[in-house]
Amino acid sequence: MRAIFRCLLLAVFAVAAPAWAQDAYPSQAITLVVPVPPGGASDFVARTIGQKLSEVLGQPVIISNQGGASGTIASNNVAKAAPDGYTLLVSSITTHGIGPLINTNAPYDTLKDFTPVIFLADFPLVMTVNSGHPEKSVAELIAFAKANPGKLTFASSGNGGAPHLSGELFQIVTGTKMLHVPYRGSAPAVVDVAGGRVDIMFDGAASMLAMIQAGKLRPLGTLSNARLSILSEVPTFDELGIKGVDVSLWFGLSGPAGMPPAVVQRLNTEIDKILKMPDVREALNRQGGVPMGGAPKRYDDWVRAEQARWGDVIKKNNIKVE
Q: pLDDT band for position 320 (50/70/90)?
């Protein structure tokens, strides 16, 4: 009878353990690691979601900005962290889409060493110039670039990111040649373009909106199939006759490989609810973002599709990071 009783207890514990683990999580602060300095779209998404997540989970959510090496430093720190749900990465097209295809020496595998949690948001890129730039349109920039190869410069948040690859793809499609000027994050790059020290920048509206509203940056086109509601007067590249440069910044939440399914589900469920909140949707929309959400598989499928897409582009056009 004692043996039977012990077996029954073990069976009950086995059934209750996942629910107990989910209820017990979280019991301490959660850290969202952002792979760029404060001020960029990734940082904005992290802080918008993090504040709400702290409220619903009843624990502090700490934002840890760990910029550098196109997200490799931050990604590696999270990949090596304990898979307990307390250290999470705001992953992106830079860390999980393009970066792995260019930085083949990264000390981790983005598809094997991370647990997908949820797709957070999508931000179509915008092409901008300094408001005092003599060229007033994309067509004028292309004409100038063709007549003066290598004279125009374009800034990015770092080698290998979507803003960088957008500039490279733009040159391939338009037959132009420009000089790439990489920065450590979007914020300092935006400052230098607004100050006229660099000519052009491709980035999410969230990174540049303040300077656009202040009249220091002029948006010339969006790299998407539809206009942004916050920049409704800015035409899309499709409208301008420029095909094949449809690029967006996308962000998701990833943890180390081996996270408990109950913890992943708790995070996914709560954040999916947060992304449906009217004030959160409005906040993302105001910055040019589209809330996403969905099951972890949706984000995993998206990452794999983007790697396949960009792998083909990089291979066909021999794009390399210097």
A: low
